[in-house]
Amino acid sequence: MILKISLFASLYIFLLSCKGPNETQNTVPTNYVSTEHLIEAKELAGIFEDENIKIVDFRSPENYQAGHINGSINIWRTDISDNSLPYEGIRADKENIERLFSRLGIENNDLIIVYDDKGSSDAARLWCILGDYNFDSVKILNGGLKSWKGRGEKLSTKAISYMPTQFYLPKKRNEKLWIDKDELMGLLSDKKNNIFIIDTRSFEEYKGNHIKKGASKGGRIPTSIHIDWADAVDLGGNKKFRSIEELQKIYKGLEMNVKDTVIVYCHTGYRSSLTTFVLKELMGFENVRNYDGSWVEWSYFDELPYEKDSIML
Fold it and tell me: Is 26 domain-assigned?
């Protein structure tokens, strides 16, 4: 796949003025396209005690117990994973998510606000899974726990529980947010498909030099382009999503428009969930799909093609 230089943000206004009314849909945005599923700590501070809000601390139980936003409930990776497979990371099925949320006391009309302390990659995973099951009432706390503490808010060590409910996910799934290995393989096999596959792992994982626990071998899905998920977040600072101008610079090497099919993956679908959120929500790409199985699943099947860099001796 040939990489090209896309439109620079500084040319946006000029180019927009030169286009007709039907051509503007593929131009580069100058602000986040949507913040519907993003919330700032200041806004949360004003509503976090509202009756129909459930705050989810998506960190390990140990970290949750050490201090969390007052009133938040704890969900961790093992709670939303399918443990019946020979490889890890696949999301739990609809019924198991419903049982989990019912046990935690989450109502169907609740607004779920989720946070972590890793730059929102874990929080984005919950957003992505619920979006796949067509539950849309979810917001990610921008900056996570760091943004909350930055306001001077105190943390709580008291676990909270709610009365169990009968939580149900919508019957119809959102099939435009998720892709499995078989459909992805079909797209790869059809040379007429113009798709972009983005590997959001570290560069060493992408090259095949570093094999994380759970993967059967090192490498990458053929034609993958490497863009580290962490580039989209100020990990060393406030842990918030970068500005739209910064995001444009990250993706400037790809001449993608908002209607292109973009498939993202990582190791077990967490880091790629954040990139899915960035591309779909913040940048406005319409056809972004997260490969849930990611490299752990793809590497498990010997018949699936893969690439890796040669190691020079």
Answer: no
